[in-house]
Design goal:
The protein is mainly alpha-helical. The protein has one domain (5-146). The chain has helices spanning 5-13, 18-26, 34-41, 56-69, 77-98, 103-107, 118-146.
Length: 149
């Protein structure tokens, strides 16, 4: 997949919140129109409802992982467990890179020390998602290559 990070950053400049910037950049991969993606992710900006909790870019990434991994069967607990695992791994990667997953901490609201700007968080969330997609595609290609005809 060609990187879409720049596209996400342009969306942020156009007034999208951090979650919208991430989700709307990749929504076409899941046959979700951008208007719907924009509405669904609207309440996650500003660290979820402006409360400066979990970073909006990261929650956007979580939404994408759910879209990617979901099989639309509520009884299929394996898919749910796998999605939760992916979300946890993504959160750990994000925290490792940025020092926190909390909007207030990233913005340095209490400490005065900014760990990461919103555009940097958006780029990091996109990179984690793209790495996941690229790794999955590489696995699919190697599976096909190793199949005996």
């Amino acid at each position: 997949m060609e990187s879409r990070i720049e596209k996400a950053l342009i969306k942020k400049q156009q007034g999208y919140n951090c979650a919208q910037s991430v989700v709307c950049t990749y929504c076409d991969l899941f046959d979700v129109d951008e208007s719907t993606a924009f509405m669904i992710s609207e309440g996650f900006g500003g660290g979820i409802g402006g409360m400066r909790l979990t970073c909006g870019a990261l929650t956007g990434l979580f939404m994408l992982l759910g879209l990617k991994n979901n099989n639309t069967n509520p009884a299929r607990l394996v898919a749910k467990a796998h999605t939760l695992k992916l979300v946890k791994e993504a959160a750990m990667k994000f925290k490792e890179k940025n020092g926190s997953i909390t909007c207030a901490e990233l913005k340095g609201i209490e400490t005065g020390k900014i760990l990461r700007t919103c555009p940097e968080c958006i780029a990091d969330a996109c990179k984690i998602f793209e790495d996941y997609i690229n790794a999955e595609q590489a696995l699919n290609i190697s599976d096909i290559a190793s199949t005996k005809i």
